[in-house]
TrEMBL record:
Organism of origin: Nocardiopsis composta
UniProt domain HTH tetR-type: residue ranges: 5-65
Sorted UniProt keywords: DNA-binding, Transcription, Transcription regulation
Feature: DNA-binding region: 28-47
Name of the protein: AcrR family transcriptional regulator
Keyword ATP-binding appears in the UniProt entry: no
GO molecular function list: DNA-binding transcription factor activity; transcription cis-regulatory region binding
A Pfam family it matches: TetR_C_33
Length: 195
């Protein structure tokens, strides 16, 4: 029987907060149970196991990122959309490192298919927003896939290094970020000529 006040949504949100505070590896069923002052068994009526919990965290984080990206690019195109998208992505990653880490774990297709509509909506909306961003650059496959991979790896790598203090140089990190986004815009506008 579920404990009064505990819901799957509350548990997943608390686990995501815990991941942001202490890292994804710190999120266990036992640690989450301690956070709520209950026994581990109380959580199993809401989540099947730690893998299920982390999948749900990834879906929550995807919805949150999709909301931010969608708001950032709404009504924008080209370089303005790219800059807004890049800034929103970087800010989300830096302010929610545990949630972002959860998103890097591959979600099994059957888990995504079994998720309620709103839960499964996040990954789809991230993909759609990314696709909308690239429509302004008139890219189609295979160029589109290559460009998406380039941007994702650039954003991920830059923010990952920034998060661990990897830019130990007096040059302003924000200024370097802006130059990187400018360079990506230039590359995307000239992609077809780069072959």
């Amino acid at each position: 029987m579920p404990r009064a006040g505990l819901t799957t949504d509350r548990l997943v949100a608390a686990a995501a907060d815990m991941a942001d505070e202490a890292g994804l590896d710190a999120v266990t069923i036992s640690a989450l149970a301690r956070r709520f002052g209950v026994k581990d068994a109380s959580l199993y009526s809401h989540v099947a196991n730690v893998r299920d919990l982390r999948t749900r965290m990834a879906l929550l984080a995807s919805r949150e990122l999709a909301d931010r990206l969608g708001e950032a690019v709404q009504g924008r195109a080209g370089k303005d959309a790219l800059k807004a998208f890049a800034d929103a992505y970087r800010e989300f990653m830096l302010s929610h490192p545990g949630r972002y880490a959860a998103m890097q774990v591959r979600i099994a297709p059957e888990a995504l298919a079994a998720a309620p509509g709103a839960d499964a909506d996040g990954p789809r909306r991230v993909i759609e927003t990314t696709g909308a961003l690239f429509r302004g650059y008139e890219l189609s496959d295979p160029d589109l896939t290559d460009a998406v991979r380039l941007l994702r790896s650039t954003f991920h790598g830059y923010a990952s290094l920034e998060a661990i203090g990897g830019f130990d140089h007096p040059r302003d990190v924000q200024a370097s970020w802006e130059r990187a986004v400018d360079a990506l815009d230039f590359l995307l506008r000239n992609w077809s000529r780069a072959k």
